[in-house]
Amino acid sequence: QVQLVESGGGLVQAGGSLRLSCAASGNIFTIGAMGWYRQAPGKQRELVALITSAGSTNYADSVKGRFTISRDNAKKTVFLLMNSLKPEDTAVYSCYAGNKFATIPYWGQGTQVTVSS
């Protein structure tokens, strides 16, 4: 009932910035929290940032002060602004959305972020 499509990934030098976008379609009114996860080769998936329908945010300790998550009022799009990027930020970043009772997860296909030194 919900589809998520990410954009904005790419190659950037350490210290640079990227902005990821995730557009939702379908039954968007069922969406509650949205967020971004990432997975590097050989490592498990980890939560990067989460934003609730009320606007409360949560960040991984490794990105606090560098990344900012936001969403539009209609819940159509969620953004992740990534500043001061480090090589250890290199991963596939996937958009996440949950329904309002967090019983159904939705996932985007993922977008590659590569940070060179």
Architecture overview:
The chain is an all-beta fold and 117 residues long. Helices cover 0% and strands 56% of the residues. The chain has no helices and 11 strands. It has strands at 2-7, 10-13, 18-26, 31-39, 46-51, 57-59, 67-71, 77-82, 91-99, 105-107, 111-116. Strands 2, 4, 5, 6, 9, 10 and 11 form a 7-stranded mixed β-sheet that branches. A hairpin with a 5-residue loop joins β5 and β6 (57-59). It is globular. The N and C termini lie far apart (41 Å). The mean pLDDT is 95.
Summarize the structure.
Helix content is 0%, strand content 56%. It has strands spanning 2-7, 10-13, 18-26, 31-39, 46-51, 57-59, 67-71, 77-82, 91-99, 105-107, 111-116. It starts with a strand and ends with a strand.
Radius of gyration: 14 Å
Helix proportion of residues, in percent? Answer: under 10%
Helix-strand pattern:
EEEEEEEEEEE
- End-to-end distance, in Å? 41 Å
The share of residues in extended strands comes to: over 45%
**What's the number of extended β-strand segments?**
11
Name the structural class: mainly beta
**Main beta sheet strand tally, sense and closure:** 7 strands, mixed
Categorize the overall geometry. globular
With helices defined by DSSP (H or I, 4 residues minimum), what is the helix count? Answer: 0
Poorly predicted regions are none
Keywords summarizing the entry:
globular, seven-stranded mixed beta sheet, 0% helix, mainly beta, 117 residues, four-stranded antiparallel beta sheet
